[in-house]
Amino acid sequence: MERQTEVIKMDIGPSPQFLMERKVHTQISRRQIIKTKLKKSCSFTTERLKNMVMDFFPVLRWLPKYHCREYIWGDVMSGVVIGIILVPQAIAYSLLAGLKPIYSLYTSFFANLIYFLLGTSRHVSVGIFSLLSLMVGQVVDRELLLAGFDPNDDAETISNSYEWNSNSSNVTAFNLTLGGLSTECGKECYAIGVATALTFLAGVYQVLMGVFRLGFVSMYLSESVLDGFATGASLTILTAQVKYLIGIKIPRSQGHGIVLTTWINIFQNISQANLCDVITSAICIAVLVAAKELGERYKHKLKIPLPTELVVIVVATMVSHYGNLNEVYASSVSGAIPTGFIPPQLPNFNLMYRVAADAVPLAIVGFAFTISLSEMFAKKYAYTVRANQEMFAIGFCNIIPSFFHCFATSAALAKTLVKSSTGCQTQVSSVVSAAVVLLVLLFLAPLFYSLQKCVLACIIIVSLRGALEKFRDVPQRYHLNKMDTLVWCVTALSSALISTEMGLLVGVVFSMLCIIVRTQQPRTALLGQIQSTAFYEDNWEYEGLSPVPRTKIFRFEAPLYYANKDFFLKSLYRMTGLDPTLEAARRKKNEKKEKERWKEGDRGTTVKGLDQADTTLHLVPKEVDFQTIIIDCSSITFLDTAGITTLKEILKDYNKLKITVLLACCNPSVIDSLKRGGYFGKNYKMMHQLLFYSIHSAVQFAKDNMLLADGSTV
Question: Per the database record, which ranges form the STAS domain (predicted)?
């Protein structure tokens, strides 16, 4: 790096001037940078290849260093607990995705294993997530409807509906090319085909984001946007489960306004409610909520959380089975869940073009939640995660399972909190959780045949309690930041009343508009001096500040660019009480009138013997009580061309009125912009008279100039 010295003189009044030295950094050409990176990337040594493999599979780094005696108990305990939670949640969330429970169990199994190999977080629990299940379900329902199937989940299906060749009389045969083979595909086959195609594309997008390092996209999903999106989607999920709670059969709504349409259908068919489902739902919700409340109240005494969902499912299944609730009361049940695995199959590439756009929000939401949770828990437990590797991990958690009839996954907050609170130390706990799910897949799945769907709906609704309780935080959020609260409300309402994907888009766009509005109309202030100090503050906010004689100190708290330059000028003119353009025009008009009077011999109030300069001074209005404007640039982070032009015009216009404009507290970026724009004149000769290191040094300079001017007048 070559160093050059750039001298910036900063006058500090009666004390001597001092010099500020700027470093000049030698810029390397883009071609050289690309050449160096390519050379580094293409040099494949054994050591580099080893590091690449170790980086891509982080498990190879930490597993050999695994402290078995220290970690194994916590990992096994947390893995078993998460596995017990995963089973009922997986079966329940299949309702949201519009798929059979077996596919949810597959998803939970494969996601845990793949993240164990590729993830860098020690505590994140990756698996089925309610928001992603909802988004998948909406796409599946839409495609089923477009293909001529009945998307109603309550349609009768035969016991072998899990086979790719279905002969159910209630579904339409649809010719598809799956894995290169032409086959007749029924409703269930088509639904999982849509889900796997969607999941595969979402994973590809996430991997591409990792390759091109597009993780910055998640920065535009602020906490307010994510919370609002989760809350709005929770309302949609809640609405979708009400029909199962009360046991009515209504069509699944499509398009925008799903929440309103569904509630209208519910009230129109409320008379058809199944009394058995209503009673079961009331009992299950009461038990689940009571258990949650007790668990939160006594969590400091409980080493592991209560497996309430599993207990409720086991008891409800037994009651339904031995009470013949399906046959006697027509209560809707889960149906047959086969054991084992369906042979792997390629995702349907013919469907991908239909769901390519839907996979984008799915990919963004998935990696945004995963990365935010990974970084949050890494900070809490004092270790680091690699955001780029996390994108690869969650991407392959979607790509690989899509070959095994799985749908989209991501990290989930609730399970991650449970995982960390039950002693998890590493991702070995994910393997234990996968083993629990595998046990269910191989042996226990058929036992859930008689499980009522209303019980699953109860589990889903109670799991939404945390997101729905955020409505209670609105007053506190409003007190903390009004703009963030507005973003939260807009995102939540649009997610609930329009659609989840549109709600996310509306939330991101609205939050960006709020940022633009904040910079378009930022805070401005006139500053006064804190008595007997070299510091200056806002006259509006603080009392006891001393005005600086014949000097106005103006602060602008935002970057100065094309969108707010007009607001900058209006604020400056309003606060100083002087628009230099109008004042110059008025003076010019007065001078013209004075010249006309002079020619006509009517001297008026003009004193005999005064020259033109004296006449001009005589016409200066009395209300201009200042000779210097100091602009505090400490909050101006950058200038664009319009901003530079605005400052140059201000300097020129005020100088015409014999008013000096000084800049204080500029950062190096702003100084460079001003220099490139010619603000300081040729060779920066005027820099030491226009630019100051602090407000106080500018005030001292202005006072000295005024003293000199007064002395010369005398």
Answer: 541-702
- Please, which residues bridge with residue 530 across strands? 545
Q: Is 648 exposed, middle or buried (0-12, 13-18, 19+ CB in 10 A)?
A: middle
Whole-number Cα distances in Å, 493 to 225, 237, 397, 476: 11, 14, 31, 19
Identify the helix (H) or strand (E) that includes residue 586: helix 580-600
Q: Copy the structure tokens of residue 653.
A: 């216009």
Could you tell me the two tokens for 184? 């007749």
For the residues of 544-573, what is the DSSP string, one character each? SEEPPTTEEEEEE-S-B-TTTHHHHHHHHH
Report the C-alpha gap between 268 and 441 in whole angstroms.
Answer: 39
CA distance 184 to 172: 9
Q: Are 401 and 114 in contact (CB under 8 A)?
A: yes
Q: Measuring CA to CA, how many Å separate 316 from each of 62, 277, 446?
A: 42, 11, 15
Are 152 and 145 spatial neighbours (Cβ–Cβ below 8 Å)? no
Token pair listed for 187: 């409703």
In which region does residue 212 sit, left (phi positive, over 0), alpha (psi from -120 to 50) or beta (all else)?
alpha
Nearest to 521 by CA among 488, 554, 556, 486: 556
Task: Find tokens 């998890």 and name the residue.
Answer: 424
- Tokens for 321? 């089975």
Q: What is the pLDDT of residue 210?
A: 86
Cα–Cα dist 246/255, whole Å: 24
Task: Indicate the length of the chain as a whole number.
Answer: 714
Give the span between the Cα atoms of 30 and 55, in whole angstroms: 27
pTM: 0.76
Strand partners, 538: 527
C-alpha–C-alpha distance, residues 362 and 692, integer Å: 51
Q: Residue 95 burial by CB count (10 A; 0-12/13-18/19+): exposed, middle or buried?
A: buried
Among the listed residues 623, 630, 626, the one whose alpha carbon sits nearest the alpha carbon of residue 651? 630
The DSSP code for 155 is S
pLDDT in tens, 130-161: 889 988 988 998 888 888 887 664 444 433 44
Instruction: Estimate the share of the chain in helix, then strand, then coil, as percent rounded to the nearest 5.
Output: 60, 10, 30
Distance CA(613)–CA(603), nearest Å, equals 16
The residues of the chain scoring below 70 in pLDDT are 1-22, 25, 41-44, 151-185, 215, 303-305, 601-623, 707-714
Signed CA dihedral, 598, 604, 609, 615: sign only: negative
* Angstrom distances, CA of residue 63 to CA of 78, 114, 385: 18, 15, 16
CA–CA gap between residue 386 and residue 540 (Å, rounded): 46
Q: Where would I find the beta strands (DSSP E) of 401-471?
A: 410-411
By three-state DSSP, how is residue 631 classified?
strand
Beta carbons within 8 Å of 629's beta carbon, 6+ residues apart: 551, 552, 553, 554, 572, 576, 654, 659, 660, 661, 662
Determine phi and psi for 184, rounding to 5 degrees: -85, 125
∠ CA 508-514-517, nearest 5°, is 145
The predicted structure's pLDDT at residue 623: 58
From start to end of 485-550, where are the E strands?
A: 524-530, 536-538, 545-546
Task: State the SS3 of 107-126.
Answer: HHHHHHHHHHHHCCCCCCCE
Nearest alpha-carbon partner for 552 in 628, 639, 454: 628
Whether the Cβ atoms of residue 229 and residue 368 lie closer than 8 Å to each other: no
Residues 556 and 544: their CA atoms lie apart, in Å, by 22
Secondary structure (DSSP) of 280-317: HHHHHHHHHHHHHHHHHHTTTT-SS---HHHHHHHHHH
Sequential DSSP letters for 460-479 = HHHHTHHHHGGGGGHHHHHH
